[in-house]
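re: ur question from yesterday

yeah so i grabbed the chain u mentioned. its 156 aa long if i counted rite. heres the sequnce exactly as i have it in my notes:
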Amino acid sequence: MSAAEVRILRLPHGADLPLPAYQSTGAAGLDLLAAVPAHEPLVIPPGGRTMVPTGCALALPEGTEGQIRPRSGLAAQHGVTVLNSPGTIDSDYRGEVLVVLVNLGEAPFAVCRGIRIAQLVIAPVLRPALREVDALDPTSRGSDGFGSTGIAGGSV
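ran it thru and got these structure tokens back, copy pasting raw so excuse formatting
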């Protein structure tokens, strides 16, 4: 599979940080780093949220999007996750990549310069034409939703 090119602009406040990178050969997402001032970490109180700068802007290929996804380690260890997960970066957006983090944990969380805060997955986008109809084709599931195919993990 050939790799598409994504142009990246390192912004002044991210000049000394590494560019987003894959952490293993099989990784689907590039790790995004916090480009906050070294002497001013962002502290997210329990229940709080904040927009974290990454110090970079992207030019994604037309027909793709960037999906901002949580890092499992932050979620499992600290209760910190991406609030609007997955966040979407459209291919025509040229501003700084910002990540909305929320602290669902019980303790304040400090976002320090250079920590890995989220993952960026580049994915294709399908833009079909919508056609209004009077009815939809029936299926065996019909309009059943939200748990209609079974609940994983048992009950509380």
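noticed a couple things. Residues 7-124 form a domain with the Deoxyuridine 5'-Triphosphate Nucleotidohydrolase; Chain A fold (CATH 2.70.40.10). also Residues 72-78 form the longest helix (7 residues).
anyway ttyl
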